[in-house]
Specification:
about 450 residues, disordered C terminus, mainly alpha
Length: about 450
């Protein structure tokens, strides 16, 4: 079956409808996931207390530090698979899919080993408050023990989305999120396993969702169908995936180091600051939903259309997706800004913790449009095979400038407000830089041969 016969191909039909139809299931999926994240924190905060909430919250930046590199690296699979799918190259598409799965398994095992061994020590380096350190360590080690399920799930859904299928990942994400909440209640309220139980609930749900995704890929009657006996490394294809994913992997890791430094500065203000900021991050996740939805849609749309030589269509689609994401992100930001005291109060009854969370939110949420713009332009450029510029831009501003700003300013001001402003300032810098690059550089022509890929119309 030729790739062009799939109804998921994004190289024809109304541009707006194609992008929105693809992005909407992702939007719903992350909405459900965010409701789970909120429910998880509500369960921990209300059943286990403020210290447990702070313990779980303090691990967020560390989790992304260790997972982000491999997830960004694996993200190269989406660009490669989308390109071959749009170019209707069935042979290379199959090799890319099975290499991506092999790479997902290897990455998941690597994250598991590294996370379990190194995370406790990194928590100490971060200056995690002593009163929450024991619970934070229990949570993070249990979480990383099941990292294989999380990485493999994201690999499988990445394959589906790369070929234009965002509906089935939505279904599995809903199942996972509901199951996660049920398991949370059982582990914490019934079995009294504490924060370790919350982490155990998460990894069990992730393994189940990973199995469902793989089951779908095995049974689908499309050109990208998975055959278990064919899951292996094709080294030339792995090189293509890594060369396209390495910039995103390095970007995630370097940015995460900056975020770990931010978390360390927050930790210095004590348990209440950690709890208040942690509650905000659960709410802040709603602001990322339109951003994530359209960035995934844009990368797939641009890569498929450039693979098919549809340059003008790729350009029009990129503008449409950026505009939609920026507008929706800002609407969500305004809603959070207005309702934040009530929202934070649902997680903790401590007035000091609520004050910290509200203060952070009201500094950051008005600038969600800058965050959205940076991510969307980066997604377009990655889809065009130009992932290096977004990587360098975000590494420069979201890591080095953040660390430099905090290193200089926090000792002078001794202020939590100073820490809060580091995000909007660096969002502005990255948005301006990427905007200029997007407008001035011809990212369409000459970049349709996604870096490391063979021209689909040429050799097989």
């Amino acid at each position: 079956m030729a790739a062009s016969k799939s109804s998921d191909l994004m190289t024809s039909g109304p541009i707006g409808r194609k992008i929105v139809t693809f992005a909407f299931p992702i939007f719903l999926g992350y909405l459900f996931q965010q409701f789970y994240n909120v429910a998880d924190s509500l369960i921990v905060g209300n059943l286990l207390g403020n210290s447990s909430l702070a313990a779980v919250s303090s691990t967020g930046s560390l989790t992304f530090l260790l997972v982000g590199f491999f997830m960004g690296l694996a993200g190269g699979e989406g660009v490669v698979i989308s390109h071959y799918f749009g170019a209707e190259d069935e042979t290379e598409l199959r090799r890319a899919v099975h290499t991506a799965l092999a790479f997902g398994i290897a990455s998941g095992l690597a994250v598991t080993v590294i996370g379990v061994l190194l995370a406790p020590q990194i928590l100490l380096w971060m200056g995690t408050p002593e009163e929450v350190l024991e619970e934070a360590t229990a949570y993070i080690q249990t979480y990383f023990a099941g990292a294989l399920g999380m990485v493999f799930y994201n690999t499988c859904t990445g394959i589906m989305r790369a070929v234009g299928d965002s509906r089935h990942p939505l279904q599995y994400l809903i199942i996972s999120s509901v199951l996660n909440v049920v398991l949370d209640l059982i582990m914490i309220a019934v079995l009294h396993l504490g924060v370790g139980g919350a982490a155990l609930a998460t990894i069990l749900a992730q393994f189940i969702s990973a199995f469902l995704c793989l089951w779908r890929l095995v049974r689908v009657k499309e050109v990208y169908q998975v055959r278990l006996r064919e899951i292996r490394f094709h080294w030339d294809m792995l090189k293509q995936i890594v060369s396209n994913g390495l910039p995103a992997g390095l970007q995630n890791s370097i940015i995460s180091i900056g975020n770990v430094v931010v978390q360390s500065n927050i930790n210095a203000f004590g348990e209440m600051a950690v709890a208040g900021y942690g509650a905000y991050t659960r709410i802040d996740g709603f602001g990322f939903i339109p951003i994530t939805s359209f960035t995934m849609a844009l990368t797939t749309f641009v890569s498929q259309n450039l693979g098919a030589g549809e340059y003008e269509r790729a350009k029009k689609g990129s503008r449409f997706g950026i505009l939609c994401s920026v507008a929706l992100a800002e609407v969500v930001g305004v809603i959070i800004y207005i309702t934040i005291p009530v929202l934070i109060g649902a997680f903790t009854r401590e007035e000091e913790a609520i004050a910290y969370g509200v203060q952070w939110a009201r500094i950051c949420t008005p600038f969600y449009f800058l965050l959205s713009f940076s991510h969307c332009v980066s997604a377009v450029l990655r889809g065009a095979g130009r992932a290096v510029i977004p990587m360098l831009t975000m590494m420069a501003y979201w890591c080095f400038v953040r660390v430099g700003f905090l290193t200089v300013m926090v000792p002078i001001t001794q202020s939590f407000t100073t820490v809060s402003w580091v995000y909007p300032l660096t969002w502005l810098l990255s948005a301006v830089t990427l905007g200029i690059y997007y407008l001035k550089v011809d990212w369409l022509h000459g970049s349709h041969r996604v870096r490391g890929l063979k021209r689909a119309a040429g050799t097989n």
